[in-house]
Amino acid sequence: MGVTERRRIQRAFDARPDVVADALLDAVTAEIPAYRLLAPPQLAEVRAIASWALRRIVELWVDGGSLTAEDLARFRGVGAARALDGRPLPVVLRAYRVAATRSTDLVVAQGGGRLDVEDMLSLVRLWLASVDALSEAVYAGYAAASGRLAGDRERALRDLLDDLLTGRQTSPSALADRCRELDVTLPSRPCLLVAGPAGAEVPPAAVAPVLAALLPVAGGQAVLSGVRGGRLVAVLPGGAVLPGGTEAMAVAAAVGERGWRGCAVGGFPLAEVIRAYRLAVDALDLAPAHAFEGRPLLATGDAQVVALLAARPTARPADVVSSVLGGLVEPGAAHLLDGLGAFLATGSATAAAESLHLHPQTLRYRLRRVTALTGRDPRRPWDRLVLDVARTLAGFGPD
């Protein structure tokens, strides 16, 4: 029928925009379950875009044109908006295909049998070319916005770590809001790992493999991390500091397999990670080489003792006792602490057993229990020092 009939259909659609828009929205929500879950404002936006797209295609069909650069820019904007609200790209593109099919049905129905073969071929060709072009535009806008989002989020996560390590983020409520905005879950009492090659900076290429090795420790979640002062810093679950635990062993393996040295400090609320960071850095800077004998990773107790010996303001005697001795200060473990004290005083299990009127095997069993509970072997020079300092402080009482 040519241009005359096409214009008649165009005027009919312009006269009933709400009916046309509702028909397109119904088709999209019927075919794509994800769109049924959208909020009313989002559905209204889908309805408006679909209605505009149909009217624009009919206009081009009448005039014999194709989508312009301005039209494609609008579709790029739509793609960017869908990336921002998190709608999956395949679902978005399918919605346009569904709308195109329904639009063709509406045109045919409005034509009432008066459209000829050339009218329909022209419409189908236009829709095929338009869906192809608008899909590319939507994809381009979506990809660009996704890239910006990823960059912005990475930058925001780096800023969050910086603020934690410098003490700028001290309000628990503000910190919780910030984590919620970034969709990141952080432990309320984390383990802070600081690690790197002795006397050298962390190679940039080594960061990703170490973080991959730490993923099981973090329950498969991405680890808040960064390189500070030439060392890798990572916020891990608090269980990573438990002596002999699988998480602590996994962290030690991730550090030791690369020949690095590290310090894992825990026991502080997330908002006080600055203290953990200062303890870990001081421990790595000041601990003697033999502190790492047989192990690549210092623990909270090591860092506390180093801070105490170096007269750092982060040192707290009560924290030294709790982080080194743990359950050994409980009344039920007094016999273990006594056995440790006797061994430290005499230097041998036999002499310690004699001083306590015990069989040597009994004393050795108690020392094995001390090692199991604290992760420290009193026969090693550094562990011996750390245990002796903590036990001495415990004897001073809570004050």
Task: State the oligomer.
Answer: single chain
How is the largest sheet built, in terms of strand order?
Answer: 2-3-1-4-5
- Contiguous runs where pLDDT drops below 50 for at least 5 residues: none
CATH class category name of the largest domain? Mainly Alpha
Strand content is: 5-15%
What is the average per-residue confidence, as pLDDT, rounded to a whole number?
88
CATH architecture descriptor of the largest domain: Orthogonal Bundle
> Main β-sheet: number of strands, strand sense, barrel status?
5 strands, mixed
Count structural domains.
3
Shape: rod-shaped
The helix tally amounts to 17
Number of strands: 5
- Give the ordered list of helices and strands: HHHHHHHHEHEEHEHEHHHHHH
CATH fold description of the largest domain: Globin-like
CATH homologous superfamily classification of the largest domain: Globins
Helical content stands at 55-70%
**Radius of gyration of CA atoms, rounded to a whole number:** 34 Å
Cα(first) to Cα(last) distance is: 99 Å
How would you describe what is shown here?
- It is built from 17 helices and five strands.
- It has 399 residues and is α+β, with helices and mostly antiparallel strands.
- It folds into three domains: 3-149, Globins (Globin-like, Orthogonal Bundle), CATH 1.10.490; 186-314, Alpha-Beta Plaits; 316-399, Orthogonal Bundle (Arc Repressor Mutant, subunit A), CATH 1.10.10.2840.
- A five-stranded mixed β-sheet has the order 2-3-1-4-5, with helices on both faces.
- Strand 4, helix 11 and strand 5 form a beta-alpha-beta unit.
- The longest helix has 50 residues, at 117-166.
- The mean pLDDT is 88.
